[in-house]
Amino acid sequence: MASQITKTFDPEREIADRIIAALEAGTPPWRKPWTGQGGGAAFPLRATGERYRGINVLMLWLEAAEKGYASPFWMTYKQASELGGQVRKGERSTLVVKYGVVEKEGEAGEEVRRPYLRAYHVFNADQVDGLPESFTREVETPQDLGTRPDDALEAYFARLGATIETSADPRAYYHPAHDLIHMPPIATFHTTEGYYETLGHEAVHWTGGAARLDRLTRCKDRQAYAFEELVAEIGQCLLFATLGLIPSIDQSAAYVEGWLKALAEDKKAIFRAASEAQKAVDFIAERCGMAPEVERAVAA
């Protein structure tokens, strides 16, 4: 009988790969200062109403954004049944993990604490029929909040020379194959600053295109994608600083955890990311200069 090789299930690897796939697709859904269901889903909750923590927040945000789930509630098949619901036929579950510590007695009688990881699968309330009404939510639609552009910053980014496409699609991303930046309408953003921070983040990604600084051709594995996302985030902060503006360094703890897991084996990654970010900002500044009104404010 021919021997069979059994592939070991590695939940941490599966989660990391899922996160990188989202980074590949554009701005991660947990960073979305605009309205509309294309990202920024509600904070994921257990059936009990308790908040998920750590890496599970990313996983459930990603799945909700991809599938368009409006409900924040997630539950196991058994929990759904206990609540009077029935998971619809053909629905696929989402992987989450539980970290814990088990205490055992060692050989010398001492207490030994050993960490463990257990994977299990959950469904969103939108995948379940017959649940109480309290588990349902309406899908968020883009809202015109009346947010207006800043003339100086509009002129600044226009000098970049990038193709910036705007549509009702509630996603922000740089598309390498088409070499364009896509942005939701500025009116759907909560603040003007949030719009230009997002545009700055995508502009840094744009500098990595093959026709410019050629960083993105190196994005071939999960570490490389995490590194590029770190470059874009640092670059956006540096860009705002060069314009005399205050960047919002408000990434979720879960987002940072995703970077750290992917970059854990590379102690110098943060230094290289900062260096690449500076090159990107220098490239932008060479094309765009400084926004006139910001320049006057800084000079004052």
Automatic annotation (TrEMBL):
One of its GO terms (molecular function) is single-stranded DNA binding. Residues 152-275 form the Polyvalent protein metallopeptidase domain. InterPro entries: Antirestriction_ArdC, ArdC_N, MPTase-PolyVal. Residues 13-123 form the N-terminal domain. This is DUF1738 domain-containing protein.
